[in-house]
Amino acid sequence: MPIKVDLMEHIAELRHDLAGLEQHTATLEGLAAAVLNAIRDGKKLLTCGNGGSAAEAAHLAEELTGRFYRERPSLPGICLATDGSLLTCIGNDYGFDEIFARQVQSLGQPGDVLVGFTTSGNSENVIRALHAGRARGLVTGLFSGKTGGRSRGLADYEIIVQSANPSSMRVQECHQLLMHVLCEMVEVAYMELPSP
Known about the structure:
Low-confidence stretches: none
Strand order of the largest sheet: 2-1-3-4-5
Order of helices and strands: HHEHEHHEHEEH
Radius of gyration: 17 Å
Distance between the termini: 64 Å
Mean pLDDT: 94
Number of strands: 5
Structural class: alpha/beta
Largest sheet: 5 strands, parallel
Helix content: 40-55%
Strand content: 5-15%
């Protein structure tokens, strides 16, 4: 029985969406500089997202704490979506919409950077985390898609990936490329910092 999924159609669609990403260069550079400044000042990166976006958020944090592809000291990155006990504790007591904001309120310090991932732009828990971040003096970043949804305008650095695909898969694939470029920007700039 033949499989009726056309790989070339997916490749063509992704190629089309990738072609529009260069418009985000300045925003990506600004966000990388904000992360680098935070690290230089003894601060940290916090990330959050749901589902596939939680995986992207975790990926970004671990690339800093581990490494991207250069040997360097570990950098402080924490994903707010990875502790199942904590997420269910907050979700049970305060509701799913508060699972990230509550952590930002306890872990976030002025000068930290918070980056949220939401392909629709409408994830209430990410929106509340961005509000909590701003209230605590964090620099905020957003990776979103389509129109940016209700999260549009809530972050200091906003990347909204346009895609003709009605699902979130192309947006997530573009987010991954942009996130990897962000990691490289931070890592290269960090390696160029003068020794303390």
